Amino acid sequence: MIQLMPILEENSKEPLYIQLYQYIRDEIVSGRIQEGTRLPSVRQLSASLEISRTPVADCYELLLAEGYITSKPRSGFYVIPFQEHLTLTPRTELSFLKNAPQTNVLDFHYDKVDLIHFPYKKWNRLNSSCVTPENLQLLQYGDLQGEPGLRSEIASYLHQLRGVRCTPDQIIVGAGTYHSLGLLFQLLKDEVAIVGTEEAVNVGVQDIFNQFPSISFCPLTLEKDGISIDDLYASRAQAVYVTPSHQFPFGMTLSKEKRMELLQWSKKQDGYIIENDYDGEFRYNNRPLPSLQSLDEHEKVIYLGTFSRVLTPHFRISYLVLPHHLMQHFRQKKHSYNQLSSPILQMTLQLFMESQDFASHIRKMRSVYQRKYEILLHCIHSTFGQGAEIIGQGSGLHLLLKVRNEMSESQLISAARREGVNVYPTSVYWLNAKDAMTSTVLVGFGGLSEEDIQAGFAKLGKAWGIQAR
Ligand SMILES: Cc1ncc(COP(=O)(O)O)c(C=O)c1O
């Protein structure tokens, strides 16, 4: 029998089954475990690694679903001949599912947006109107802070939509939220040693946290109306990271009371609030609460947003709104900062925002997503009834589903995948993996058509063996 010797980290944010899955998959892809090899049984491997059987069984389940191994009755698990593998790129974040070259898969990934309604003709026209003899300077390096015209448009857009009070001078255009957050922590790292953060956080954001070892990121309990303010005081943090409009991934909204308490905390402790409003544009059936930045009287709220949801993630355009004193800090340091967002793309976006088309695109997308969201809710209720609980409703482009059928998270994902449906784990988002919710998957709906949402849930009903009563 072959010996498997992965290095597993109990305290890692990656669940054990994912760590083990990655190790065995890499051994197979690199040829270190050859085709036809019989893997140790679940019992043997769990005994040799001194871990429970569940992560081993979950890992084998995933390797089976991915097509790396096969199971022979009463014999064991065998590595499949190489040409039969699905060729997967090495996994980063959740890309082991995202990058799998499957066809006809119904992909409920949370970061997909609707492209059917993207006004590409208009966009192309504006884009080509940017490169003219008068505008050739756009082909040079751009403004490190972002093109001034675009910053003006962003300032007025944020004021109208989210009540944000700022001048274009306070805005820094970035190449996506992670880029903007990385820049922000560069500016904060000399004055901030502890940052309180929601205890479950987007994996890309966690990666940014990990790039700043001098800052300690302290998880704060998530209650049904947002972070625990008691935890925040106890953490002695000098800054706090929150997604108040639509917590990622849980989807709760930070209540009005907590918003006021958070601002009180900021005033008392002179602490920064980092407000990530990544999908604040999309709320269904209820009015948005004001942004924290719009309520701040002490210049302590740092507001962060992106065009990835409202338009498309392809553009890689995000923005930071900084208090004046941090802006001065940015100006001193700005030459060590690289502006990654193309000036031509920025100008196209500026023209698009100046036209009526941007506002009408947002209105249209609100109703498109609202309809998809209602269909999704209907599908969940009619397919599963009491067999599944929805977590996080009323806004954004995703929700969580806690499934009551005794399957673990990885079993739910693997079973769905065998039916040609991708849903995604939630355990990876917890800063302390042991706190993760069980049997809960993340379901995004932005990129699927109404018909595909319905077809997907018919398949999930079959995959998970639950019928509404
Ligand atoms: C919490 C959070 N912030 C921001 C984003 C968008 O990131 P970006 O602007 O890099 O596309 C996402 C994407 O899913 C997210 O989950």
Describe the structure.
The structure is a single chain. With 469 residues, the protein is an alpha/beta fold. Among the domains are: 1-88, Winged helix-like DNA-binding domain superfamily/Winged helix DNA-binding domain (Arc Repressor Mutant, subunit A), CATH 1.10.10; 120-356, Aspartate Aminotransferase, domain 2, CATH 3.40.640. Helices cover 40% and strands 14% of the residues. The protein contains 16 helices and 18 strands. It has helices at residues 16-29, 42-49, 53-66, 95-98, 120-130, 148-162, 177-188, 203-210, 229-235, 256-269, 292-295, 324-333, 343-354, 356-384, 409-418, 450-464; strands at residues 38-39, 69-72, 76-79, 106-107, 171-174, 194-198, 216-220, 222-223, 226-227, 239-242, 272-276, 301-306, 318-321, 388-391, 398-403, 421-422, 424-425, 440-444. A 7-stranded mixed sheet has the order 5-13-12-11-10-6-7, sandwiched between helices. Strands 14-15-18-17 form a 4-stranded antiparallel sheet, with helices on one face. Helix 11 links the parallel strand 11 (272-276) and strand 12 (301-306). Helix 2 crosses helix 3, helix 14 runs parallel beside helix 16 (450-464) and helix 15 packs across helix 16 (450-464). The structure holds pyridoxal-5'-phosphate. Pyridoxal-5'-phosphate binds next to helix 7.
